[in-house]
Design goal:
The protein is α/β, with parallel strands linked by helices and 306 residues long. It is built from 10 helices and 10 strands. The strands form 2 sheets. An 8-stranded mixed beta sheet has the order 4-3-5-10-6-9-7-8, with helices on both faces. Helix 1 crosses helix 4 and helix 2 crosses helix 3. It starts with 16 loop residues before the first helix and ends in a 9-residue tail after the last helix. The N terminus is likely disordered.
Amino acid sequence: MAELTSPVASSRRLPPLNALRAFECAARRLSFRKAADELGVTPTAISHQVRLLEDILEQPLFVRHVRRVALTQAGRALFPVLRDGFDSFASAIAQLHPQRSRSRVILSATRLFTARRLVPALGDFAADHPGIDLHLHASDGVVDLEAGDADIAVRYGNGPFPGLTSEPLMPERVGVLASPMLGIAQPSDLFRVPLLHSDWTGPMTAPDWARWARLAGISDLPVATGARLTDDSYALQAAIAGHGAVVSSLVLAAPEIRSGLLTHPFGPVIEEGLYQIVMANHAALRPEVLQVRDWLRAFRGDGVLD
């Protein structure tokens, strides 16, 4: 039987695998930070491994700028060889694994949207899409969809999103919310209940009591009084418990309004900005990603409350 040998096996001398992986990832993303996120290490560890490889090769592979890096001529020569090699490794290993019968889709959304809208709906998604493993990525930061940080995202903003596929999901609508146990039926009832406040961190103008009162034409509402909570989620929980009324997102509170835990007794409603579904163009070609998009579209009606 022929021996499984290579003519260069006895003389093969390679740098450490960790150094090669760190360089390939940093070169592919042109970012030590993004490479660190992908490999689950710190940017310092990536920098150390790249320095080690540069010491072994006795020449620099990156030109280091303040907030970015660029490949040197040597780096440009080495990168495609390592990229193709790691791709070949991954392909060969994948062929040895049992074929997956399920698809994975990473859905990114803001922390509040994930907590208030996506997490409560996970059970329904799993029942309706048994062949898809949905991974929720909750982040208020911008994810790099083209680099594969997520397959599809719900983001707040009017766009446009250059190089990406996007469509409006639903408008943000903000109004008065309270527990039905408070018996609030008209604006004058607000003078007899505590007013709850949240420290808004969203991209639009703060939807607070002062802004709502101006829109409602109520000049003497004591908008500076009442408990203050760190974000909308806590403020909604306080309102559900009957601790007062709050001006908050009707979109994020839609499940509680539908179940009767909260009421939206009267207007006016502050309308500003859009939630959008955003995908990289290549992800928009995957059937399982489009199924997640269609599932998100079903949320549209929940955001429109009079």
